[in-house]
Write a structure and sequence with these properties.
The structure holds two protein chains of two kinds. Chain A is an alpha/beta fold. Helix content of chain A is 40%, strand content 13%. Chain A has 15 helices and 14 strands. Chain A has helices at 8-18, 47-59, 80-86, 89-92, 104-121, 133-148, 161-171, 195-202, 226-235, 320-323, 336-375, 396-404, 414-417, 438-459, 463-476, and strands at 66-67, 125-126, 152-156, 177-181, 211-216, 239-244, 262-266, 282-286, 299-303, 309-313, 388-392, 408-409, 412-413, 427-431. Chain A has a seven-stranded mixed beta sheet, sandwiched between helices. Helices cover 37% and strands 10% of the residues of chain B. In chain B, helix 10 links the parallel strand 4 (211-217) and strand 5 (242-247). In chain B, the strands form three sheets. Chain B has a seven-stranded mixed beta sheet with strand order 1-7-6-5-4-2-3, sandwiched between helices. A three-stranded antiparallel beta sheet of chain B has the order 10-12-11. In chain B, strands 8-9 form a two-stranded antiparallel ribbon. The longest helix of chain B has 37 residues, at 334-370. Chain B has three domains: 3-64, no CATH class; 89-344, 3-Layer(aba) Sandwich (Aspartate Aminotransferase, domain 2); 354-477, Aspartate Aminotransferase, domain 1 (Alpha-Beta Complex). In chain B, helix 4 runs antiparallel to helix 12 and helix 7 crosses helix 8 (175-182). Chain B is globular. Chain B has 17 helices and twelve strands. The relative contact order of chain B is 0.13. Chain B is an alpha/beta fold. The chains are: A alpha/beta, B alpha/beta. At the A-B interface, helix 1, helix 2, helix 3, helix 4 and helix 5 of A face helix 3, helix 4, helix 5, helix 6 and helix 7 of B.
């Protein structure tokens, strides 16, 4: 076995101490009729062979493209110090700090994470971490229901589709209803959450609303009228759940400033690799009045018997191992190491670095917007955005596919994730961050322009056939 | 002050000095944000600490040294399977082809990752004796929720809306009843029999047309294999309910018992336990869920599909309407799953069987050796872990299991899980895993023997323990009554204790 230590002599000594003849005897409690006969799996591999296999698999993923893909997971520059520190075995091979006397490293880093995210969001309490943005959003919605004892949650259609689906799945066990708030169809606010519709939905006094979930920036990259949303939600006695993106919070108004009661979001942009979707970091914070509703671990500052400052998991009576079926959630294992990555990232780049990352992304996105518009792909909406936006492209799926062959990952084909939404039928969602280069933007715009032109030529009535006809005619001559 | 005490350091916020740091991110043009209306922007920057890289490094390295970890010593934390995490797995997850791959990357540029995930699903299905596996859940408890929501969807699909209860043995992990509640079910607790197994009579009496599922941990949290499992599973299915297997203890039974083949309908697997992915100070893990025939249609979306031409793709949105839907964003904790895949390939069939055999051997060895030191309530062979009890010691010396655990720290060991399962008085749940040398196990036995001696001769040594750790016992009461959960903010002054 690859990582075992027992020699045949060790095993013999252990069997003797136990008083059995063979290991098989230890499995006597398994009924004979239910015993398995080994495993049908490939044979073991040496580390050298395994390394080769893993490299082969990794090499069959393309990560060298000029990428404009965001849509909930973002590339950022991660300082080298972050991963060097994450490789400390004392951090990554420890478990949940149940024994605080020998877990102060983990405990203090979690406390610092809670504090750093508290600064970014303005929330009084931030949990030690949740699984990802989508599950944090679902838990935020459940918190709103518990706090208000109501069973109706409104979610903006501009919240990430995966988050909406996850909320729906989380609700499928109970009586809670999820309804989607439509988006403004046209005009300067097109694509943002429809405030008039929200007001109407909140006004139904027979079915009081527990919580309202709105994202800023939205899935479509737009900046939402969060302050107005907050006023409407609170006047209906409901809880305002804001879905946020943490790097943007260096420059955008904080959830606490526009009245959010709960802030949730995907922490991946804070120094965590893309890794095909995880492990990421669910950010979940709230105002202090909701602290007894927050799921998952919390670390607090205290002292030891000698009066030394120390940290410990606290308010544990919310958790499943104490409260069992009455717990605020079933969460146990969280994403602690990802929270550590976020903390080290923030410590390494500091407030100015974070602001630079957010503002540089905005500056690159401005360039991208101009270049794509010039190439024939104008923005789909006109509301303000930070670093991500949708553009209208004829035959978006076809062009996206052809650009892939030219080394460009042209964002996300919106119709693939929102197949039912006609307004997004021919659109790409693109983003820029501080790692997007001017050269990448130029490559994208040039290739896009050529592909749009090619598509236009092919689409002109008669041209496609006659061109083909000429080629055919030429061939027959 | 001791060397350890010296390492207790300031927080990031105390280390901060205005003007330090910088040089990591390029500066944007001054007008970068001028197109954004001022009322949408932050008026004041966040009050984050300002530090330079040398002190960031020292801050975290010093903090790391305050931790006990598998890489530093024996960590026999029962029910957590704190085995060694192989280093090549860390290397593999960081290969750019995996780490830099965007979750929305089109299938044609993610074939290596999709193949890895597909092969991992097949391997886990084989190990669990299941028809299919989803890798989406982020942790064991998340897998439980996924599984129980599938159970709910199954009964609903048959028009059976009367099943409102989930049966859970009283020795179960707290996640089981908490999961049942989250999925909208009422938990019915089943008592344990004197031999540590499920009380079959009570179990049969509780089963009925109102039962949606039974959640069984096998081996149980007492480290015992449920020898009447066949009978129990038959009873579950006769009642029209489904059987959920909590796979937290899979490390004991690989190649010896396949839950799906034995009749379980659904199980989760903690890859951060059995398949060595590191615990990370509390996470991340991954909680794949295997299902049998009955629950196949309800698996969360998207599944990884293999096309007839041998290529792989993710299921499209809405492609399988019977699915319970997504349980999270994207496809799962892929970075964790790469590690689990590497672990399984390194071991192969024979190696995984040996893992379980050695884990069970080590646990039985410790149990035999500790028989004269502490109470060992269940005499039959254990699986990968066993329960000891400090009940006699407490009666004779006044020293509780908590004191024994804290004194173990002074002897250089991480304590076992204590006061769990709830069904055993003064419990210690001890899980050595297969990656500890016999010498280490012997030292652990010796330490516990000495501690029991101390309890009789000088109990104050135990009450005062630990004394060698960076800090000593903490004031947990004040921490809960006046919670300080964020630097610079004391919320306790305004909020009554929620406990």
């Amino acid at each position: 076995m690859a990582y075992g230590l027992h020699t045949p002599e060790d095993r013999a000594r252990m069997l003797e101490a136990i008083g059995v003849a063979s290991v098989d005897d230890l499995f006597a409690d398994i009924p004979v009729s239910l015993r398995a006969q080994g495993l049908n799996l490939p044979p073991p591999e040496s580390e050298a062979e395994l390394a080769d296999r893993l490299c082969d698999l990794a090499d069959r993923n393309r990560v060298d493209l000029a990428s404009f893909l965001g849509a909930g997971a973002y590339r950022h520059y991660v300082p080298a110090v972050v991963d060097q520190l994450l490789l400390r075995g004392e951090f990554y091979t420890a478990y949940t700090p149940y024994q605080p006397e020998i877990s102060q490293g983990t405990l203090q880093t979690i406390y610092e994470y809670q504090s750093l995210l508290g600064e970014l969001t303005g929330m009084d309490v931030v949990s030690a971490s949740h699984y990802d943005g989508a599950t944090a959003a679902a838990e935020g919605a459940l918190m709103a229901c518990r706090a208000t004892r109501r069973e109706r949650v409104l979610v903006s259609r501009a919240v990430h589709p995966h988050y909406r689906e996850t909320i729906r799945t989380y609700f499928s066990g109970g009586e809670i209803a999820m309804e989607q708030i439509p988006l403004v169809a046209e005009g300067p606010a097109a694509g943002t959450t429809d405030l008039a519709a929200l007001e109407r939905m909140l006004a139904d006094s027979d079915r009081p609303v527990a919580g309202v979930v709105v994202a800023n920036p939205s899935f479509l990259g737009l900046l939402e009228p969060m302050a107005e949303v907050g006023r409407l939600v609170h006047s209906a006695g409901a809880i305002f759940v804001a879905v946020v993106e943490p790097v943007s919070l260096a420059v955008l108004a904080a959830p606490a400033a526009y009245g959010a009661d709960i802030a949730v979001g995907e922490g991946q942009p804070l120094g965590i690799p893309l890794s095909y979707g995880g492990p990421y970091l669910g950010i979940l914070g709230c105002r202090e009045a909701l602290v007894r509703q927050i799921p998952g671990r919390l670390v607090g500052m205290t002292t030891d018997v000698d009066g030394r400052r120390a940290f410990v998991m606290t308010l544990r009576a919310r958790e499943q191992d104490i409260r069992r079926e009455k717990a605020s959630s079933n969460i146990c294992t969280n994403q602690a190491l990802c929270a550590l990555a976020a903390s080290v990232y923030l410590a390494a780049i500091g407030p100015h670095g974070l602001r630079d990352a957010a503002a540089m992304g905005a500056a690159r996105a401005t360039q991208l917007e101009a270049a794509l518009a010039a190439a024939g792909a104008p923005r789909l909406h006109s509301a303000p955005y930070l670093n991500e936006f949708a553009v209208r492209v004829p035959d978006a799926a076809g062009i996206h596919r052809r650009l892939l062959g030219r080394g460009v990952l042209a964002g996300l084909v919106l119709a693939e994730v929102e197949p039912g939404d006609a307004s997004l039928a021919d659109a790409l969602l693109v983003c820029a961050t501080e790692v997007t280069t001017g050269r990448e933007i130029e490559t994208f715009a040039t290739a896009l322009c050529e592909e749009i032109e090619r598509g236009r030529q092919l689409a002109l009535p008669g041209i496609g056939e006659s061109a083909g006809g000429r080629r055919l005619a030429g061939g027959s001559l | 002050m001791s060397a350890a005490g010296d390492r207790l350091g300031p927080t990031l916020f105390e280390r901060s000095r205005h003007g330090r740091g910088g040089g990591k991110i390029p500066h944007p043009p001054k007008d970068a944000l001028s197109r954004i209306p001022a009322d949408l922007l932050r008026t004041e920057g966040p009050n984050l600490p300002e530090l330079a890289e040398p002190e960031v490094t020292r801050h975290y390295v010093n903090l790391s040294q305050l931790n006990y970890a598998v890489d530093t010593g024996f960590y026999p934390l029962g029910s957590c399977t704190m085995k060694f995490s192989p280093k090549i797995n860390e290397w593999a997850a960081r290969l750019p082809g995996f780490a830099a791959l965007h979750p929305f990357a089109p299938d044609e540029i993610a074939q290596g990752m999709l193949q890895l995930l597909w092969e991992l699903e097949q391997a886990l299905a084989e190990i669990g004796g299941m028809q299919a596996v989803t890798l989406q859940p982020a942790a064991g408890a998340h897998g439980e929720l996924t599984g129980i929501l599938m159970v709910r969807a199954y009964h609903r699909s048959r028009g059976d809306l009367t099943r409102t209860e989930v049966l859970v043995p009283d020795s179960a992990h707290g996640t089981n009843p908490a999961t049942a509640s989250m999925a909208g079910f009422k938990t019915v607790s089943i008592p344990s029999a004197p031999d540590g197994g499920v009380d079959v009579a009570a179990f049969r009496a509780a089963l009925g047309p109102q039962t949606a599922a039974v959640m069984i941990t096998n081996p149980s949290t007492l480290g015992l294999f449920e020898s009447r499992i066949g009978e129990l599973l038959d009873a579950v299915h006769e009642a029209g309910a489904l059987a959920y297997m909590d796979g937290a203890n899979l490390n004991a039974i690989m190649g010896r018992f396949k839950p799906g083949e034995a009749g379980f309908d659904v199980m989760h697997i903690n890859v951060h336990k059995t398949f060595s992915t590191p615990h990370g100070g509390g996470g991340p893990g991954a909680g794949p869920v295997g299902v049998g025939e009955r629950l196949l249609p309800f698996l969360p979306s998207p599944r990884v599909l293999r096309e007839p031409d041998g290529s792989f793709r993710l299921e499209r949105s809405g492609e399988r309407p019977t699915s319970i839907g997504r349980v999270r964003s994207f496809a799962g904790n892929a970075g964790v799953l790469v590690r689990a895949y590497a672990y399984i390939r390194a071991h192969g069939a024979a190696g995984l069987c040996e893992v379980s055999d050695d884990a069970v051997l080590a646990a039985n060895y410790l149990k035999a050796r500790l028989g004269g030191v502490l109470d060992v309530p269940f005499s039959r062979p254990c699986m990968h872990e066993f329960v000891a009890s400090g009940a006699t010691l407490k009666r004779e010396t006044g020293c509780r299991t908590l004191d024994v655990a804290k004194r173990l720290i002074d002897y250089g060991f991480h304590p076992p899980t204590i006061y769990f399962p709830l069904t055993v008085e003064e419990a210690l749940l001890i899980e050595p895993t297969e990656t500890e040398a016999l010498e280490t196990l012997d030292l652990f036995v010796e330490a516990l023997g000495r501690i029991v001696g101390e309890a009789h001769q000088d109990p104050e040594l135990l009450h005062a323990a630990p004394t060698s750790s960076p800090v000593r016992r903490l004031d947990e009461t004040t921490a809960a009554r006046q919670p300080n959960l964020r630097w610079g903010t004391m919320i306790g002054s305004r909020t009554p204790c929620p406990d």
